[in-house]
User: Which sequence fits this backbone?
């Protein structure tokens, strides 16, 4: 399979801060590749290096077969970039934003209006084509930003946290759009800190923490890394202070995470944890509302791989 992106020993310093630490990965043509990590892990810096907005301190990469240090002009013709913060011009109309983007990408005059009309329709913005973008919602601005990134029909699309801050309806629209674009053959490089989003969309993911890639592979394969871990999920009819600390003291329990009104107990010995859990509820006159055992999720891999050393 042809590689769309190959990163080789990428390093980037900001002063004394090591933001990207000898990163290596490969993205195959036609796949959705997720770059997953907490805020500040180095995701945006990596995208900026791959798209020519920053030079690496060390290492190199190839995008579409071109070297990022020598062939950035050729690369820019192949890629579309959707930054975390929408880069639309509020004082311009939606139509003028698209025409301007088409001009920047050297789309021929005969094609600009045709493509602007096409993409405004595709992104459900045609009726607002003559409205200034300053009055658009965040979701509408995000849709227009993606349209601007696609106006020159790139083969590789970089999306930096595309659904951050969007309402649920807009986030679903963007995720469905990513799938549709990928079905058309566009390679997608997606950064996100939303684990569920990566699990739903990505063929493969790389997990980055403190500038280093700590795990990579297909989501289901990564989940197998924590197959020895079992999760017992429980909820009670009422919750008092100190529950997490008390549950952690149950024999066989390795860790406890509270999620909403539920508690997830991580263990390698569920048969040992369950009697202790029921004993805990009985001692405090708590009624167990729900009790489930869960398979490991990509979130569990993420938590395990990004945990602080010694934490």
Assistant:
């Amino acid at each position: 399979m042809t590689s769309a992106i190959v990163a080789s020993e990428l390093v980037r310093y900001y002063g004394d801060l090591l933001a990207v630490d000898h990163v290596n990965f490969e993205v195959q043509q036609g796949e959705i590749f997720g770059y997953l990590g907490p805020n500040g892990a180095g995701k945006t810096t990596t995208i900026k290096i791959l798209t020519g907005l920053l030079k690496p301190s060390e290492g190199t990469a190839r995008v579409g077969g071109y070297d990022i240090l020598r062939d950035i002009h050729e690369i820019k013709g192949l890629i579309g970039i959707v930054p975390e913060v929408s880069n639309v011009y509020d004082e311009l109309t939606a139509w003028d934003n698209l025409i301007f983007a088409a001009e920047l990408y050297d789309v021929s005059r005969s094609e600009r209006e045709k493509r602007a009309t096409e993409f405004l329709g595709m992104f459900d913005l045609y009726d607002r084509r003559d409205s200034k973008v300053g009055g658009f919602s965040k979701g509408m601005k995000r849709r227009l930003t993606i349209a601007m990134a696609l106006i020159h029909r790139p083969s590789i699309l970089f999306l930096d946290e595309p659904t951050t801050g969007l309402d649920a309806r807009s986030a679903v629209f963007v995720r469905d759009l990513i799938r549709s674009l990928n079905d058309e053959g566009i390679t997608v490089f997606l950064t996100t800190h939303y684990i569920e989003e990566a699990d739903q969309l990505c063929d493969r993911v790389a997990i980055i923490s403190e500038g280093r890639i700590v795990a990579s592979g297909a989501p289901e394969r990564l989940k197998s890394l924590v197959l020895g871990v079992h999760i017992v999920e429980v909820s009670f009819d009422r919750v008092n202070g100190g529950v997490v600390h008390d549950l952690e003291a149950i024999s066989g329990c390795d860790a406890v995470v509270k999620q909403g009104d539920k508690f997830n107990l991580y263990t390698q010995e569920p048969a040992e944890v369950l009697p202790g859990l029921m004993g805990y509820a009985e001692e405090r006159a708590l009624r167990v509302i729900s009790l489930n055992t869960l398979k490991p999720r990509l979130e569990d891999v993420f938590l395990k791989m990004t945990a602080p050393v010694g934490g």
